[in-house]
Amino acid sequence: MVRFNTWILCYICGMSPAKHYDVAVIGGGPAGMMAALRAAERGKSVILLEKNPRVGKKLDITGGGRCNITNAEFDKRLFLKHYGTAEKFLHSPLAQFGVQNTFDFFTERGLPLVVEARKRAFPQTHKAPDVTKALQKYLKEGGIDVRTGTAVREIRTEKGRITEAVCDNATYTADNFLLATGGASHPETGSTGDGFRWLTALGHTVRLPTPSIVPLKVSDVWVKKLAGTTIPNVKITFFSEEKRAFSKTGPILFTHFGLSGPTILNSAKQVGDLLLAGAVTCMIDLFPDVDFSEVDKNILAAVDANKNKQFINVLGEIVPRAVANAVFSLLKMPSTDIKAHSFSKEDRRRLVHLLKALPMTVTGLMGFDRAVVSDGGVILEEVDTRSMRSRIIPNLYLIGDVLHISRPSGGYSLQLCWTTGYVAGNTV
Ligand SMILES: Cc1cc2nc3c(=O)[nH]c(=O)nc-3n(C[C@H](O)[C@H](O)[C@H](O)COP(=O)(O)OP(=O)(O)OC[C@H]3O[C@@H](n4cnc5c(N)ncnc54)[C@H](O)[C@@H]3O)c2cc1C
Question: Who is most buried in 17, 119, 124, 377, counting CB within 10 A?
């Protein structure tokens, strides 16, 4: 009806009617681009509407600018374990487009992947913008009508179907609409939660986004002095109201607001839950592979070998200098220039305690501006697993970060985009 009215209006005004598309994709992130590419490959006429002046703004900053494009876990069963309660939902989509397909897709497009620690896969060039460029090239070759600088302001429906995407200077009509507007993390990249507002109005259940995979705020002032220091292997144990909650082992990064790095990012969701229950503290074991007496022996050996050196310098050879300074300050020694030979057995015992259990107080999670992903989105019960079609609006498809799926860092988010984008583009 709306289409008919548009034609009549155009006829009266003497204008040629705007083109009607098979598919309109809203959002030019990884999920939207993959969906558009697949739909066009199948011969569909596709328009992609992106509010930024360019597509893939968030994709360009992924993986610290290197883009952790997927995780090279080729065993689907093991791969799925990382998606928590969404494991069952993702079974069918991953059978249609899994990790191997991602490797093949990018390799065939001149962007081979390399695998690093923890099976994280990156483009061989180690440049995230190369991923965007490869996708852009194929959007062009696929004849997709890419409209950048085009913010969708409103979605119109008629008789329970979406009919139009309304932008500032134009209105676009299509048979099917794919919503790929992302979540709410790093809003400066364009993911401002527009999709969540429309979906709620359309009758979908949207879980409120909370920052997930996000650094932690710590109140201890000495932690801030360590900003920029990375420790490759620690064990961090979190406590809720002084009761041990959980531990994780791996690298951490100290920042000017607290703690970050993969181990912390992947603990954030659980820490967020603990914070809802009360006070959260944590302890870092800087030597997780050796016990207390072994650390004590090593320090004693270092002291014996450097008796006349200042103790702080001896400690600086055992742990990074900034950490040595911080730990030493926590010992509250009467003087900073104490010699190694004057360091008592009791001081050494207190030191080992700190090195094995460095205490901190966690005051919160950083906000959306620092979050890798936000975990809100449409609940999966309202989406058909084989097609990504909305169970509420039959010509609407939901992909990427719009879906409520928790996952760790390590390439699992982008694989979700490639998979759900492909499945929707393959169905629509
Ligand atoms: C700093 C950072 C690093 C990350 N690193 C990794 C990594 O290495 N590996 C990994 O797997 N994941 C990573 N992620 C997560 C990953 O980037 C996201 O999961 C992914 O980008 C989601 O893709 P998407 O297509 O669903 O949404 P987005 O990438 O958020 O794209 C949504 C697009 O929709 C557009 N849009 C929104 N509203 C409108 C509107 N009204 N009209 C028109 N367009 C609109 C936005 O401008 C945006 O371009 C990282 C995230 C961040 C923030």
Answer: 377
pLDDT digits (tens, 9 = 90+) for 389-416: 999 999 999 999 999 998 877 899 999 9
- Of ligand 1's listed atoms, the one at least distance from the Cα of 62 is 5
15 CA → ligand 1 middle, Å:
37
Residue 374 pLDDT? 62
Place of tokens 């420790």: 231
Strand pairing report for 120-123 and 171-179 = unpaired
What's the gap in Å between 356 CA and the centre of ligand 1? 39
Side chain identity at 125, as an amino acid letter?
A: T
Residues 389, 382: Cα–Cα separation, whole Å:
9
- For 15-69, the pLDDT digits (tens) are 445 789 999 999 999 999 999 999 999 999 999 999 999 999 999 999 889 999 9
247 CA from centroid of ligand 1 (Å): 30
Which of the pair, 293 or 241, is modelled with greater confidence?
A: 293
**Farthest CA pair distance, the chain:** 96
- Position 277 confidence tier, pLDDT thresholds 50, 70, 90: confident
What are the tens digits of pLDDT across the range 413-427? 999 999 999 999 999
- The burial class, CB within 10 Å (0-12 / 13-18 / 19+), for 238 is buried
312 neighbors 325 (Cβ within 8 angstroms) = yes
**How far apart are the C-alpha atoms of 237 and 247, rounded to whole Å?**
4
What is the phi/psi pair of residue 18, to 5°?
-65, 150
Say how many Å lie between the CA of residue 182 and the centre of ligand 1: 5
Pocket test for ligand 1, best of 156, 181, 214 (most atoms within 8 A of CB): 181
Ligand 1: lining residues by beta carbon, under 6 Å: 26-32, 49-52, 57-59, 61-63, 67-68, 151-152, 180-182, 185-186, 190-191, 194, 372-373, 400-401, 411-414, 417
